[in-house]
Amino acid sequence: MDLDTARHELKEFIPHVENISDSSIRKMVGRDLARFKEFKKQGIAVKFGRFTQKENNQIRKNIEEFLSISGLDNAEKLLFTSRYPEDKETINRLKAEHEFCAKISEGIPRPWRLIYYRARKMFDPNNYKGRYTEEEKEQLKKYQAMHGNDWKKISELMSRSNLSVAMKFSEIKSAINYGPWTKEEIQKLKHAVKEAIRKKVEMAEGRSPSSLEQPDTELWVDRDKLYQQLPWTEIETKVGSRYWRQCKQKWNSILVKKMSKGQQVEAWIKRLQNKITLIKRLYEMKVEDANEVNWGELSDAIGDVTATYLQIQFYKLKVSFVPFWQNKTFSDIIDFLFQYKLPELEEKL
Predict the structure, then answer these.
(1) Among 301, 290, 194, 309, CA closest to 249
(2) Which residues are the signal sequence here (predicted)?
(3) Most Cβ neighbours (<10 Å): which of 16, 167, 211, 267?
(4) Domains and CATH numbers, the chain
(5) How many angstroms separate the CA atoms of 347 and 340, rounded?
(6) Is pLDDT of 159 > 70?
(7) Which among 167, 142, 144, 317 has a CA at the least distance from the CA of 233?
(8) Residue 107 has pLDDT above 50, yes or no
(9) Contact in structure between 15 and 229 (CB atoms under 8 Å)
């Protein structure tokens, strides 16, 4: 299949396929396209975002079954073959012989690459080694100075996962302020986010950098682009005094305030309507696990709110109004809110 045809067929399942490299497209044709079409026949949409508990359990099941049929004795050998140079040839032969790529993705409507990365995160023993000691932090800074951002190399030297060493270095590379945000920090954050969004628009719409830099050019973007898939480590670098998670949380709080601007009574009514719609939508979904909720789709349905805002509102609802919520299942919490809290909110409205 030629690349143009491949992109056209994959676009039905992956809207952002234009931004994927040619080599990745070729791999997705072999690993994903047939699976996606089969899921479509079953009425199942391809998913992105956070993995649900059900999907995590399916990954564990797939890995256990592959270990059983291949004769390999642990998941680390399967997913981190380079750590076993003496057995590498045998492991790769067994993976090819028993169709590892197909087996690991069974029953999971997601791109193979995402499933593979999720499995590596779940089964990497280096992911669960607790807090970094002061000695480890110093080692990390030394290795980064020697090897740059080659996190794979550094993870091998420190026996920590790639993600762990990358995120820890991001956290400790500069003095981080944990106090209230200053006006100067907020301005830096807004400027950094604005530039990141401009780059997203440029990539998505093919607009030239010069056209975006014109002072009289209005920048119109979809609401989702204001908070989804922003390069937070780059934004952290431009802010300089805050960790990337702090930047993300602060930006989300700024968005919530901006989106709820208006007269006090109107804002109060809007918040009330949002709570009512949120409870109704969650009830209609009939899901058993909070991880199965697509908060992005919910925010689209409600309008003028972010996914983060809805998650915060749901947390406040259950903590404030559901007795002993810690001991209830997700579906029990939703049922309680629908039966007892919803009528009260509707009466207020």
Answers:
(1) 309
(2) none
(3) 167
(4) 3-123 (no CATH), 134-173 (1.10.10), 183-258 (no CATH), 262-348 (no CATH)
(5) 12
(6) yes
(7) 167
(8) yes
(9) no
Q: What's the pLDDT score for residue 219? A: 54
The helix (H) or strand (E) run that includes residue 336 is helix 330-336
What is the C-alpha radius of gyration for the chain, rounded to an integer number of angstroms? 23
Residue 204 has pLDDT above 80, yes or no: no
Length of the chain, in residues:
349
* Structural contact between residues 310 and 278, judged by C-beta atoms closer than 8 angstroms: yes
* The pair of three-digit structure tokens given for residue 287, joined into one six-digit string: 């899901």
Distances (CA, A) of 309 to 128, 258, 305, 330: 30, 12, 6, 19
What are the distances in angstroms from CA 293 to CA 50, 305, 337? Answer: 9, 16, 16
- Give the C-alpha separation, 213 to 219, whole Å: 10
Residue in 17, 119, 15 with CA at minimum distance from that of residue 61: 119
CB 321 within 8 A of CB 313: no
**Amino acid of residue 199:** K
The residue type found at 31 is R
